[in-house]
Amino acid sequence: MTEEKVVDQDIEQQNGFNESDVNPSCEGESCANMADEENQDSATMSDEGEASASNDNEPQAEPSAEEIIAVWRDKYMRLQAEFDNYRKRTLREKMDLVASGGADVIKSMLSVLDDMYRAVAASEKSEDIAALREGERLVLQKFEEALRQKNVTEIEAQDKEFNPDFHEAVARFAAGEDKKGLIIDVVQRGYMLGDKVLRYAKVVVGE
């Protein structure tokens, strides 16, 4: 009998197993209390899960007509405010574009104005008519070139057939059958900006 106990102890030591290792701090009533607490916790968790599931399954209340109207009114007011801001911004950008475009044209004309001042100053000091006329012609060519750079071109009129889309008749004179309906004189030159008429050419038409 003593030998069997010794053998059992040896087997337990070899396997490293000891009943006290299962729960060394659990003895008697304390173990029973711990088991009861675990059962209560699991029951509480189960109740909470069932309550949450029941809340999820409950149908949600439909929004009232007043709430729906309030939501759409808010969306409408926001959209109206955004559109008003967009309209003001585009109008301001257009005004800035026009102003900057006008400034660019004026800046290109300043060099021509400088040449005109020089021509006037030279005419007061020089008596060489030929040189003065040549200077005036150069200033005129420079001015016309500045206009061409801005896509401004002169409307052809002299000896052309009268076209009310580009010409404005200020007078009519008998000029014979070969000049009938043709422009015999240009009172004021007309100009175009690209494909748009800036100023109609004032002309005299033969009849």
Short description:
With 207 residues, the protein is an alpha+beta fold. Helices cover 62% and strands 14% of the residues.
Give a description of the structure.
The protein is α+β, with helices and mostly antiparallel strands. Among the domains are: 87 residues, Hemagglutinin Ectodomain, Chain B; 55 residues, Head domain of nucleotide exchange factor GrpE (Nucleotide Exchange Factor Grpe, Chain A, domain 2, Roll), CATH 2.30.22.10. 62% of the residues lie in helices and 14% in strands. It has 5 helices and 6 strands. The strands form 2 sheets. It has a 3-stranded antiparallel β-sheet. Strands 2-6-3 form a 3-stranded mixed β-sheet, with no helix packed on it. The protein is elongated and about 100 Å long.
Please specify the SSE layout and strand pairing.
Elements: H1 2-15, H2 19-22, H3 29-57, H4 65-125, H5 129-149, E1 152-154, E2 167-173, E3 183-188, E4 191-193, E5 196-199, E6 201-206
Parallel strand pairs: 2-6
Antiparallel strand pairs: 1-4, 3-6, 4-5
